[in-house]
Amino acid sequence: MSDIKTLSEFIVERQAEFPGASGDLSSLLTAFRLAAKIVNREVNKAGLMADILGAEGTENVQGEAQQKLDVYANNLFIRMMKTQGAVCAVASEEDDDIVHFDNGGKYVVTMDPLDGSSNIDVNVSIGTIFSIYKRVSSGPKATLEDFLQPGSAQVAAGYIVYGSSTMLVYSTGHGVNGFTLDPSIGTFCLSYPDMKTPDDGKIYSINEGNWYEFSDGVRNYIDACKQKKMSARYIGSLVADFHRNLLKGGVYLYPGTTKAPKGKLRLLYEANPLAFLVEQAGGMATDGTTRILDLKPTELHQRCPLYIGSRNMVEAAMKA
Ligand code: AHM
Ligand code: MG
């Protein structure tokens, strides 16, 4: 049997690689690890507890119905970060405004606490996505400026996919590593060290139901994928689609449409963290013309088109 390395051992080992690191980032990752296990537990028993499924009866800032588990995961991740102390403020897809902790923490976090939540009720993979930035403002409270940094300023990013197994994948800018939760011992173990995505793949992921609202370029690219007999795979949970394509090679597209020129996905909560990870794994992410990590956000809940995955496929989609 090969050696098993747990996420906590890995975090400690990696911290030693950064001289002068105070341990704040490590303990923050530890807070995410714990929150991930708790959300995993709730997701797994969702089928047993009728009252945890379904709509909460409220809407988030974008007017979308919130699911109970969305709200649960949001509150849990926020509580864990608040307790932990390294984060002074959080911006979440589920909250209208910045949540302040007033604790002098040197990081800010952006997150989508439960991505793909329309899939909760039907037993399909969902996920959590997060980004960590160093605070840049100096007043008593974090400001919008701290959250509107370009994605290239991320200190770390990651996601948790609650799927056929639960995985935590993260990067601190020194490669990407994936950990699988062993439910029998309740521990994340290193299962995908130094992940690299193939330069090419055979999977394209897009909601083709939007065909009549796509640009000619996007339609041309989809046609080209079909002519090459590529496989269409679209779960409707970005984290799960992204994770599969990262491992197997592929491209995920959520382009702008005639009705929604900026697409659906959010720059701060979805595009930036996954762009950081895909680049660390050797892939590419753009909005169709510009590198995602170079975009300068102007508002918290900003949307942007997303072309992400294997380098050659993203390039081909941009040229189509
Ligand atoms: P959410 O954050 O509200 O769950 O929305 C994002 C999700 C992604 O996970 C998924 O890829 C996409 O929306 C699916 O959208 P569509 O149904 O328009 O294809
Ligand atoms: Mg989402």
Commentary on this structure:
The protein is α+β, with helices and mostly antiparallel strands and 320 residues long. The chain has 2 domains: 7-192, Fructose-1,6-Bisphosphatase, Chain A, domain 1 (2-Layer Sandwich); 203-319, D-Maltodextrin-Binding Protein, domain 2, CATH 3.40.190.80. The chain has 8 helices and 15 strands. Strands 4-3-5-6-7-8-9-10 form an 8-stranded mixed beta sheet, with helices on both faces. Strand 9 (177-182) and strand 10 form a beta hairpin. Helix 1 runs antiparallel to helix 2. The longest helix is centred in the N-terminal third of the chain and has 21 residues, at 24-44. The model has no long low-confidence stretch (mean pLDDT 92).
Concise synopsis of the structure shown:
It contains eight helices and 15 strands. It has helices at residues 7-15, 24-44, 68-84, 144-147, 216-227, 238-248, 267-280, 311-319; strands spanning 55-59, 65-67, 87-92, 99-100, 107-115, 126-134, 156-162, 166-171, 177-182, 187-192, 203-205, 231-232, 251-254, 284-286, 306-309.
